Amino acid sequence: MSQPYRLATGGDVDRNQTINFSFDGKTYTGFSGDTLASALLANGVSIVGRSFKYHRPRGIMAAGVEEPNALVETGDNAFQEPNLQATTVLLHEGLIARSQHRWPSLAFDVGEINDKLSWIFPAGFYYKTFMWPARAWRFYEYFIRKAAGLGTCPDKPDPDSYDQRFAHFDILVVGCGASGLEAAVQAARKGARICLVEQSNELGGQLLHHPEQIIDSLLPADWLKRTVDELTAFDNVTTLPHTTVVGNYGYNYFTAIQHLRTGVTPGSKTHNPRQRLWKIRTKQNIFATGAHERPLVFNNNDRPGVMLADSLATYINRYAVLPGRSILIFTNNDSAYRLAIYAVKAGAEVRITDSRDGSEGHWVKQAATMGIRIEFGKVVVSAIGKRKVEAAIIMSLSSNNAAVEGAAETVPCDLIAVSGGWSPVIHLHAQDRGALVYDKDVSAFVAADGFEDQPSICVGAARGCMDYKTSLEQAATAGANAAFKVGFGNDTPTNISVAETVVTGATSPLWMVPAPQGSRVGYHKHFHEYQNDSTVADIQLAMLEGFESVEHLKRYTTTGMATDQGKTSNVNALGIAAQHSGHDMKDMAPTTYRPPFTPVTLGTIAGRQHGPLFSPERKTPMCQWHKENGAVFEHVGDWLRPWWYENPGEDKHGAVARECMAVRTAVGMMDASTLGKIDICGPDSAEFLNRVYTNSWLKLGIGKCRYGLMLNEQGYVFDDGVTTRLGENHFHMTTTSGGAPRVMTWLEDWLQTEWADLDVYLTSVSEQWAVISLSGPKSRDLLRNLVDFDISKEAFSFMSMKMGAIAGVPARIFRISFTGESSFEINVASNHGLHVWKALLDVGQDFGLTPYGTEATHILRAEKGFIIVGQDTDGTNTPMDLGMDWIVAKNKNDFLGRSAFDLPVIAEQSRRQLVGLLPIDKTTLLPEGAHVTRMRDEPFPCSTLGHITSSYDSPILGRTIAMGLIENGRDLINQSIFARNLDGSSIEMMVCEPAFYDNEGGKSRD
Amino acid sequence: MFQIKCPYCGNREMTEYTYGGEANLSRPTRLESEDSLALTSYLFSRTNKRGIHLERWFHVFGCRKWFNVARNTITNEIVETYLPNEQPQVVEQTKE
């Protein structure tokens, strides 16, 4: 029979809409309105997963986000998603679900041996065991990694889309149980703009499975309908069902995850993204987040069939599923008696074991009246049955809760419903460092009083208030008050909903059930934390070894560190620790709560910013031409730059060599539009440059260019470039391609703060100018055909700039060279860039004009020993380290970084210096980044002299060359040192001046 | 996630700004920097205060202006924002 555990009537499921799904390859049916968990229970599936450490069979325990056991994987191929709680997955047609963490199958799992061997896996097992010998870690790691982790990642890109949005509201109400709805209605009536968020797909919270709870003389369903109808009628209320507020980041800023396609078959066409990340800014917040029921801790309390009492009530009343016929209820408070009443009405046999001495509560009396067997002062000491509960062993509890005594009675049952009291959901309050206090009445931590001036307040069960009447009053007051605080109406609520008062007996804390005297397993199977398999024995060991503080306890036993963040386990763990260490619960404040409240899919965080939208891509005006002409691109900062141009049949090495030789022997051109360019004007511009560069700028002639180094205040090089004086008070600065924004911000900083007296204006013009660097011995002859002014060596000298027309458009042409050949850097307005590029190509055919990319540039500049900031420097190099003493005007009184030169550390002898390096074998390419030692084959570990910063195969020299930062490098010139490969082998090389070609620099001046 | 009141633009999300380190440091002149203590203290020593901290912020995704902020490092409360050439009102409290 399908769904043998489904009740014939009742519940919120639609029996006319059957849904087919599969679990571990077997097909089942459920109804519309089911979660995967309720459908599995309806079909009698008791084991849904294996536990993390001991691979024990586990079943469904809870009915919501607090579920620690029922983690499943759904979907297949690209839609596969691991680690979903079966209790929060809405059933949809064709849903494919699988259990996790078992091999080869759920029923027979090889890892189960860990359970038998649990005595060798105490808390801290991995830390203690795999410490020695140190080098064996890689061996251990392979097996540990295989054993660790839950679920598997999909191996295909996520086909779904995700969305994000910002929203602003006056008041955020989290949770749509009775309290949340009442608070929202009260605030909405005053006119405040409200965002009402509910993590479940239905509004109502516990009212959805407490059908007897009368409010305003209405049944819960009717009160809910009335309230929701009223809320819906307001324009100022935004209701977000199936949305979880996962983070409270303080200052009224929240993140929430909205599920838009749960219950929808993956891949089916809808306009909706799968999830939406809301970033919500508010003024006042009401947390009506309810409470999570705690389990009771006894031997084998993790067996499938042990369920939380109120969760079982949820399955019976909301989903019409009665997963057992004979239910033993084990409780330390009155709330579980409600379940007894529901279960008997649904047709189950019920017996109650209550650890307390007695209770005069309303439901207790009602249960007794119904003839349900109730035993006070007794506890379940052990569950029996491995794959499903078969019985429970009951004993009497001693008066001080310290021991169990008397005869052990075996009670046959197929479910054990436990209730260890309620833990208010204080996560959002605590994430923003809200104060917590231990509340004796609820035996849990609640938000501290006395912070009424704060914008957030917990109400109802989230505040530890476990009855509807008081909760509704609290919520109504909070709602009206929040509206008043943001400027709407007065702080008096109107027409507060009134619930029937129910008298309940007190909760009596029972953090764990004592093990019977002489018990062989002791506390090794008393699970307080299910997902990480943490037991009472683990806590005892932690206490014994001195890990008494809550922070230590958490990390040592991993309690509360699983994906459920210990929603059901935290308070019990603290209680057990307090009991063992003799501390008072009020001194056992939980560790800091961190977002997210429930796990968040990475796709939601990424939103639309993935693939090409992950980061902006900057393109030059000539980019399309590069693409059409064989360019292979590299990313430089955000820029897309041609790395080299590949002719048919060429490889990288061949292409780059061809480009290099063209520049050295004929003429090449490069798209240098990405250079950072800053326009500087104002009467104090020269003085400003004099302060930010190490050399002198005051006397630079108009139309002249100068190379400059910028240092930070610690005296270290952080950018370089050529700056040109366009007019008396007007300069054109260039920076490295990747460094432009950083330099701009840096210059702005000094102008706005330290040197606010300087009259200087900066404008970023990087994208306004297209730049073509024409370089090579034939560059002048080529260019002559396109310009309207004299560019002879005499009329247009090296390191100067001229304005004129090129190919009919206005240009600034700079005679500066990064290749060491005679060069012209042609700057034209961006939209003329492609025109001039093509004009040069047309004329250039006769000259052998060859476009070249960044790789060739790097080789050409390295042949000349020109540095690239960020490659040949690492942020700890002074100009002197780079052999650039000549650029530091020591007579200048001040420039950025100047004073640091007086520090001993800058002046000391053993600094790393930039030198050239020539491998003895001219064909050996030194690995960039390799460390350098003084001696050949010096055994590791040994100290490094420095490292290789640049290494290339130079076509013009017919050999490999390199540069490196080497300790006292300049003293080692003409001596042999050794680059070290990862395998320890050595490459001999000769230290030399960092310049390999045309050292006199005559060619660039030509 | 706190907000900062830019003196030019008003209250904006903190993600519009970048942090620029401690404010109101005194940059030694060449002469003063021969006193290496003044220099090293300017270059390397920061107060790392628990409480009201004076610091520089840059409205990078806004008006691109630098300004100063007095922020409580315990609560992230922005006590005050002021211009680079000004002294904060809270300076008296921060002297202790």
| Major sheet characteristics of chain B | 4 strands, antiparallel
Give the overall average pLDDT of chain A: 93
Task: Estimate the global geometry of chain B from the Cα principal axes.
Answer: globular
Largest interface: A-B, 21 and 24 residues
Given the C-alpha coordinates, what overall shape of chain A results?
A: elongated
Low-confidence stretches of chain A: none
Q: Give the helix proportion of chain A (percent range).
A: 10-25%
Description:
The complex is a heterodimer of chains A (1006) and B (96). Chain A is of the alpha+beta class. In chain A, 21% of the residues lie in helices and 27% in strands. Chain A contains 24 helices and 49 strands. In chain A, the strands form 13 sheets. Chain A has a 6-stranded mixed sheet with strand order 40-41-42-39-33-43, sandwiched between helices. A 6-stranded antiparallel barrel of chain A has the order 44-47-46-45-48-49. In chain A, strands 2-1-7-5-6 form a 5-stranded mixed sheet. In chain A, β18 (326-331), α8 and β19 (349-354) form a beta-alpha-beta unit. In chain A, α5 (178-190) runs parallel beside α11, α8 packs parallel to α9 and α17 (652-665) packs across α22 (854-864). The longest helix of chain A has 18 residues, at 468-485. Chain B has 96 residues and is an alpha+beta fold. Helices cover 14% and strands 33% of the residues of chain B. Chain B contains 2 helices and 6 strands; from the N terminus they run βββαβββα. In chain B, β1 and β2 (10-13) form a beta hairpin. The longest helix of chain B is centred in the middle third of the chain and has 9 residues, at 36-44. The model of chain B has no long low-confidence stretch (mean pLDDT 88). Chains A and B meet through α19 of A and α1 of B.
